[in-house]
Queue: 2 jobs
Job 1
Amino acid sequence: MLHTTIKDITLDEVQQIVQPSSAWKIVNSLIEKELVSVYENLQENYQPKKVNYVFLHEQYQQEAELKKLFTVLDKAPKQLNILLQFLHLHQKETDVLQTELLKLSLATSSQLQALVQKGIFVVKKIEIDRLQYDKVDAIEPNILNELQASAYTNILSGFAEKKPILLKGITGSGKTHLYFKLIEDCIAQGKQALYLLPEIALTAQIIRKLRSTFGNRIGIYHSRFSNNERVEVWHKIQHREVDIVIGARSALFLPFIDLGLIIVDEEHDTSYKQMDPAPRYQARDAAIYLAHQMQANIILGSATPSFESYYNAQQGKYKLVELNQRYGTATLPEITIIDSKKTQLEKTQKGIFSTQLINAIQASLTQKKQVILFQNRRGYSPFSMCSTCGWVPHCKYCDVSLTYHKLTDKLHCHYCGSKSAYVKICPACGGHHITAKSFGTEKIEDDIKAIFPHARVQRFDWDAMRIKNKYSEIIRQFEKKEIDILVGTQMVVKGLDFEHVNLVGVLSADSLLSYPDFRVNERGFQLLEQVAGRAGRKADKGHVFIQMYKTDSPIIQHLQAHDFTGFYAEEMITRKEFNYPPYTRMIKIILKHKIQATVSAAAQMLAQEINQLPNTIIFGPAEPGIARIRNQYLQEILLKTNKDTELNKALKKIIKEKIAILSTTKNFTTVTVQIDVDP
């Protein structure tokens, strides 16, 4: 009888035998026929970090023996110097790091090894944390003023009612002080606190404030950490080695043992929505659910709350607490709108800067104050154009124009990440007049350096943040007044607190107000009010200059008056009239395929299948504004439904069933379908 040993094979090996795209389909078919079985083997990839520490041999820890050692090493000055430097470091630190000892003594590893061989030193590998912070000794008190104390009392009454709290506090009102007081209460009760922020850049500043108030039992968690660093944070939280966790949206999924408080700072921010890949969750809403599950208190904070949250507060679902004055003697900044059409006609513009803004920057620099310049576009030029025939370079994988980046001297696609050489000769007409159109942060940085050559200018966007922890370094430099002018995207406006900024310039507000989205006015107001809030946060009066063409925008009057409630009331009339959130729920279904005709046909079929759903309005299918990304053609179907929970559960079940039918239909099996609830 012939016996054969059947070897297990991996999915990677299957993909080498058949077409990679069909590997899973073939494997699933074999599983259904019970010809094969599949198992997963999980492997632990985490490796603790170990470093060398140097210890004095126990023989020489007695004073008499140590004196003899000095005599022995008297004729070996380099080795004696290593010993002296070791004793110097040992007085400051209990354990002496080998790299630090070698650096201080200017010695080599072989010289240190000679002392080890003589039995004078012992070198041990010791496991350490990858995340190291300076120790904090002096803890600063967190004292509330009268308005904050009143708000604190109202928050506690909301907690007693088991309601989420919406803290609407104008920029610079001291919401952070309230957060710290609530964290203090939470820790006193022996529980953990989670502090969510929309951007990694914010953590650098907030973490220093937290550590100056609460010491060293703080963990940080965000996407810039390596996998090993994340594992260490995970273990610390699981074993209650930290009391406070500060992080971006993914910090919601950490293994909290006894969570007592969740703070969602800048709760309106779009960064809280996970867009791609799945799961497409809204971290603010997920945090409310988590708080309910763990019986924890939750507070949502913002100067410009999301309409959904403010509506819930108006309806009594959340408790609204307000702070309507800036902390101390500070006042809200004055906002000046500069009509770009007028400045161009009157020739009072120098490149992308109006004369009025240039004069204001000069005045701030003369007063030794700092300036923030905001433009929500990266790169040097968002698109280029042939002046002869109008040809524009586009991404070959996406239906978007390419952005020129001067730093790399390449054309970048901000959707798929592809790069190509900068085009100097037009492929359409052969012309040599390719000109940059519009402007991004790189061009602003270049131009402002030319106008103010003696000013210290720094760019603050994702392109400048490629180096790990670069954002922390720039924020620290700006706080220490080592930077005069900070040029950045929306990273600079999200809750950062800079004491010496008295001027903010918005170079092109029109780009914020021209998206085909029902939330465009809400998000434009929020972003402009937030960027304005960076100015005049202390005693000095702040000024904001906003350059734009469309000066008749409905948000401008409310923005200049810092009138969120008036803007909200006006915008909600339109929302109600056209059945938009928060009066309804929305579901977006996105279909993708490499063949345009296939995805269009699939979208038509799915739309017909779900067209008869009760209490639901269906729009589409239609191409989105960008119809192709990463060589995948897109179609979208938008559903509006009422806010009945049971109805929505049934609706989601039906939609999933219809998508399952589509995925088994001939010609549509390779169509990708994504569902985005509350887009």
Note: The mean pLDDT is 84.
Job 2
Amino acid sequence: MKSALIVFILFLSTSIKSHAQLIISEYLEGPSNDKCIEIYNTSAAPINLAGYNLKLYFNGSSSAGSTVNLSGSIASCGTYVICNSSASQAGGANLTSGGLTFNGDDAVGLYNGSTLLDLFGNIGDDPGTEWTGVGNGTADDGFTRNVNYCTGVTTDPTGTGVSGFTTFTAGNWTSVGMSGATLGSHTSNCGACGSVTNTITINSVSSLSYGVDCTTGATGTVNITTTDVFTAGNIYTVELSDASGSFASPTSIGSLASTSNGPLNINYTIPAGTATGSGYRIRVISSAPAVTSPDNGSDITITLSGGPCVLQPPHMTSVIINSCNPTCSEGHNEIVFGSSGGYSIDVTVSNFNFEYGSNPSPAANTDYTDVLVNNATRISELDAAAGCPGLFIDAVGTTIPPNASWMLAYTDICEEALDWTGLCGAGPIYVIFQNDPSWMTSGNFVNGSSGMRYLNTTITTTSLDVFDIDYNFDSGISSASDDGSFVQYNSSGGAPVMYGDDDCMLSPVVLPIELYSFTGQLIDRQSYLYWTTLSEFNFSHFEIYHGTDVTSFYKIGSVGAAGNTNMTQDYRMIHPNPVPGVNYYRLSAIDHDGTSRNHGIIALKLDIHFAYFNGNAIVLDSPYAVEIYNLQGQLIAESSDNIKIPFHHKGIFFIRELNSGITQKIAIQ
């Protein structure tokens, strides 16, 4: 009997320990349906979640008002996120449920069957509005379990005589706000999760010698392996030291979104204009958790051909002044693009300043960069929208290297309103997210009305050089009233070098380029394409591509380039056979080493007019087979081989050429 009792006690102890391996690691109670719960597995083995559930106790009730059954599994030292089906964070959840709804005064229990594993709140107690003890309380806030908290609350205080959420203390929980940005990234020092240290090891780099010039960088690959668990949203970033091997101000040169332990190959680009030196090193850092590898162990030589570059200042290259907003407000997608020029920039509030207003005096302008934030979720969404992972880098708190592209955007940018695919191959693009209260989500850049508008960038580089550049544009330009309208600038600022409209399809024309303009016009049913370069370095020729949409192009011709020049060069090509409707043209510059640079896309619409009315007949320019319809779709007349068709009706009519299907509208009064 005694041995049986010992066996029972051992069994009970083992059972409790097993159940306690899962804890509630994050609680999110945000606006509307932004409700999420994160669960963490503190054990050394994955756990099948069949039979596990969340129970919700509303307004002090001792009976569960809603139960959410879990499914799937949770990895060792891994997270599992459950969100309300309508939560803005639902896209990153492991499970969504309309039943996951609670307020700051409700209790949430994690169960295995009927066994309580952890508890947020106090079942049977209604605190009124919220549980208090950490931050501003549980109403409209998010909280994460501290990394040293290893066991759940397995015994409910119960009863109305017990007041409050007794374990809701600063020693157990930390307030993280309502964004949900930390969901899926919990780490812990508990048990097996604290016994192994995350490491990153560089196995090799593709080369220890690189050549660059003032406009072209050099590419390479680093191979790494890692240990322990890297959580969802982790980004491996390749950093380059200075020429003495110091990482005091490293340059980010490549990245890869991955949780794999490898081996992994990460592509990187040595920036154009990097100074000659033989003591460079490379290292790799991670974001979730934050780990830094030793450097690659061998000196890297970089040779800058042509001597020191004439450095361009950090500057703005373009602004989308009329956003594309089918799913959100105007201000969500007003974007500023720019270049770091020949300098590196530590992205902080004090180093990066952007202003806009209707008065040329800076004192009258509005500063839109008082609040800069990180947003790893948006970076992932932008990469997914573009279809090329690693294109975008979260820049706030990092260093933008020389000759790199940056993008200033509102933190809640609606990436689904724009076509980003045209930017693939033009990166990396360093995204500076701002959440400034001055930024108006209803719209900032007044467009389509008369009047000048003024902008300013004041940027301090890592060398402590300060560049203050003014820009302007005329908001009354007719094209400024179209969605996708942008203005483009060169490095000296001032008036735009181009007013354009990308029709919500972004292309490298918004990024730093040597191109002054790329335009076209239709003359006698032929497309005349014109482009002008401000400078050229190592150019071989230009290639022109044609398509009827922005995803499929074919080459229609090439034009030789001047090669190397600081003088303005003008070019022209004629496309003799555009198709009826919209014709898209893409311009690429080809270097002597075969490198191709996309310099943007323009669209020309060819309206075919093959008929006109001469007073008593419709005259065709060839004996087409046609049908003529009125606005009600009724067939009014037809002809199979005549050039002149007698016609005595008035109104608006549609003439359809039967062989090609082309339809022309004609008005007769």
Note: Helices lie at 2-19, 376-386.
